[in-house]
Structure formats: structure tokens, C-alpha cells
Prior knowledge:
PadR family transcriptional regulator; 2 strands; Tscrpt_reg_PadR_N; mainly alpha; Arc Repressor Mutant, subunit A; 6% strand; Tscrpt_reg_PadR_C; 7 helices; two-stranded antiparallel ribbon; single chain; WH_DNA-bd_sf
Amino acid sequence: MALEHAILVSLLEQPGSGYELARRFERSIGYFWTATHQQIYRVLKRMEGDGLLRVREVAQQGRPDKKEYEVAAPGRAALSQWLHEPVEPESIRHELAVKIRGAAFDDPAALISEVERHREAHRARLAHYLSGEQRDFTGPGAPQPPGIRQELQHVVLRGGVAYERMTIAWLDDVLATLHRLGAAPPGA
């Protein structure tokens, strides 16, 4: 997937400035597709030049005017074309998994703090996802009945929740294994 597609989806959900788009990437889309602020601004400029986006100047009190981006008809067509193309299943690169395998050639217990750090990061992300789910989809302020956009956003979020839960369970298994191996006599 190209960053352009993630930007098109985000701007179709809600037009906004480059800054607002970068904030959305930090809050939600960025958990599935990351980009720096510089990358986002560079791609927005290119997409505007290619006619995929429309831009309007928005006056602000006491600050410089901002550019607000929205998807133009050619951008909608590009997203539609991409949505109809097949996507290959992703293969993952998992540096921690390689380290865990490599621990067979060193001290497995030395990885415990690193695995615990990863586990805590995944627990924090899961808590963030669950909080967002409560706020946006299952809590009292959630749209009833939800529209197609909310349903599809929610199913992606549920995938993130499931992934984090699976990863935490796996890290718990890794920790139990590392602790067991750390208690084993050297060379066992």
C-alpha cells in the first residue's frame, strides 16, 4: 500500500490540514500505516499537483492561514481502482523473534527485560485501542445505528485488538519459556 492510499482514506473520512492529517496518523491510521510529518506533507504536495486533492485556504485568527485538503474526483477514482486490485498477504519482519531464536547461542534470560518491555508496549496499545473502541464504537456516544464507515473502521480496530491480545499471549509464552530456560543449568 502506498502512503497516498492511506491519505485518501483519511481525507475521505474527514478533510483536513496536513497537521490534522499527521495527528490522525498518530492516533489511528498510524497503527496500521506509519508516516512522518515530512512524508505526509511531501505526498500531499505531490497529490495536489497530480490533481488527486483539492486545497482551500482557511483563514485563522492570529495564525497563518492553513491549507485544508479534500479528495478530488481523480483521487476518488484512484482509490477505487486500488480497492479493486488484489493485495498479497503480508509477510512480517519481526526483529524480536530473531533475537529470541538467537538467544539459543547466548543467555536466554538476558532477553527477559526486552520481552517485558515489548509486552508493556503492546499492553499500552491494547488499552489505547479499547479506550478508542469505547469512545467511538461501543460507548454511549457511538452512532446508533452505525453507518458503513463506522462498521468498517470498527472491524479494523477489532483486528488491532485481536492482534494485540494475540501478541501479548505470545509474549507471555516467550517470558515463561525464558524464565524456565534461565532456571535450567548451563548447557542443559
